Amino acid sequence: MPVGGLTGPLALLMPGQSAQYQGMGTGLYRDVPAFAGVMDEVFLLMGPAGDELRSDWLAPSPRVPIDHADRSQPLLFAIDYALGRLLMDGGLRPSVLLGHSIGELAAATLAGIFDLASAVRIVQHRVGQFATVPAGGMAAVAASQAQVQPHLRSGVDIGAVNAPRQTVIAGAVEPLRTTLDALRRAGYTWASVPSTVPFHSELLRPVAVAAGPLLASLPARPPQIPLVSGYTAGYLTDAEARDPGYWASHPVHPVLFWPALTTLAGAGPQLLVECGPGIGLTTLARRLPQVRSGHTEVLALLGPPTDPSREAGQLAAAAARLGMSPP
Known about the structure:
The chain is an alpha/beta fold.
């Protein structure tokens, strides 16, 4: 597949929490019928909640902010999945998938581990459980995991390792505040992650426990497309794909995105395509030695957050670079 002079396999990077922004995907929904059709599949499977979600998502002034987990989580899943389906229905076959947080569930659905109806049930159950979690937040610290760890207060955990010097922490409001104060005094800078839920922390242990019975009842199959796990940083095994405990633990365990991305990049020259809103994952991928040397290329399907009316044009330009007709 020639892209900008590079020939190599296609890897899809599927973003999760913090990639959301107001209006994301709404232009595609209005202007790209194939995208709207897949989104409507997801909304239909959600039942009445899907009707409400779609209506609020498309509203000029949404009732629920996009950063609320009731909006960000199901919409990120749906948009990631719909964009992946567009590529695959257009004839592109990814060689590997890597999702960040909720993005891994979208990747698992594209890989055939879960059917779409089962994946939607998992998303809805998880989101419903977030109301039981104490208020908290997340922050991205410009430091390594080893540098951050000594400053963590009780109730604050490592939520993600996104890059060698980008570590996300998560916890309840007050312990997170005191941890961030300690990090500031130690000379580290940080930025808040848009989330009112402390994803990937022990505070979400009840969410994981509650998901166990549901996941045990759903069929899960070996991946039909290789998937690099954002939680083990290795290729997902058939046993892990079938293990309800693996999927139930996602809200608690840290996302090891950089180690997983390093594993993926080690497979040789390829094209890393961000299959979801924004450019967060391709921005991280640009730090890879393989990208800096020009042996691996990156492409974001939608580019930076923009006016929704421009989304169809951005997607068409990306499709052209991928050698496929505009969706």
